[in-house]
Amino acid sequence: MARNNRIQAEIEVRADPSATYRMFTNSTLLREWLADEALARPIKDGRIYLAWSDGYQTAGKFRKLEPDRSIRFSWIGTDEKSPTDVKVTLRPIEKGTRVRVTQSGFEDSKSGRKSASDLKAAWESSLENLASVMQDGPDLRITRRPMLGVLLEDEIRSESAAQVGVDHGIRVSSTIEGMGAQKAGLTSGDVIVGLGGKTVRSFADLVVAVSTHRAGDEVEVEFYRNGQPHTASMELSGRQVPDLPDSGPGLAAFVGAIYRRFHDNLVATVEGITEEEASQSPAESEWSVREILAHLITGEVDAHSQLIEQVEGLERLYDGGGGNSHLRMRISAASYPDTWAMIDAYQRAMAETVGLLDALPTDLRRPAFWRIAFGYSDAESHLNEHLEQIKAARAASSQAS
Predict the structure, then answer these.
(1) pTM exceeds cut of 0.70
(2) Which of 145, 252, 270, 379 is the Cys-Cys partner for 357 at CB 3.0 to 4.6 Å?
(3) Are strands 191-195 and 198-199 parallel, antiparallel or unpaired?
């Protein structure tokens, strides 16, 4: 609760004050533990913007910066009438740094006291996450979030709305054996439009809807199948965090093995395909074999830039990637002379990914490495989804011929 018009939260982290200071002043690093979106310009009167996927956002200015010692910035959040003051102090201790966050200037009113109480709980949770990501790497916002047990395909947009019979939602690619979605009866092609009473229009909406619950909760899921609305009760599953490699070479070996298996299966799948078959779309708004390959190539190339950005702590803002753009896939596919040239290009892109992972700096900060490694933890299932997609596209084009 607020006391003397202020709140306070603190924690000890096993990192030196210099590294901890950067976690509060770098845009990419702020996204690794505190906010879903962040912009920070750490100079006096430089702007700081923070936003969360649940719709809460703040804006303010850096008021005072003492490198490796303290940071002060103003804070005014969604629906708050006046700004408050946030002071972060960093004190070196034997095993790292003691971090203290003090936020003051709350109004002496019912809404002011509620805001103070909510923010105290939020700071305590966020500082716990700061300690986790700096010490071991795991982002608790991910590891503690329950799961539906689905692999997702895309957000419904205007070009696909007529096909699925609804103008918003997230299309399910497949369900995971034994998890909540499968038990509730969801299947490939279903479009999730609501969860637990919250409307789902985007991936961000789905994250918010899930993150307000815990594993084991029963929620109602609303979805469309073949243009018809359905509802089902679903139990949210616990997140199974895999054992991840703890070094760049280890991660490179892990990903390299996945890529070799996929490449061998891919070659076997397209063996003997004609260029006419590879270029034919199974149906309107569905990709041809060549367009699926273009998606794999461009996705891998995009991942190279993302890897470097995460290493350098200079990650660009994102509103989603262009990896599912039909225009991009069509033009990219047309730029290669034949299907085997595309497979060769994809193999080179995969080899570059493995090389980058193998060369990751040994002193790369833990949250960045964990995020990179976690991102590849489901690479094999994702690639196998595309392999099945290629098989289906080839079968459809063969029948049409």
Answers:
(1) yes
(2) 252
(3) antiparallel
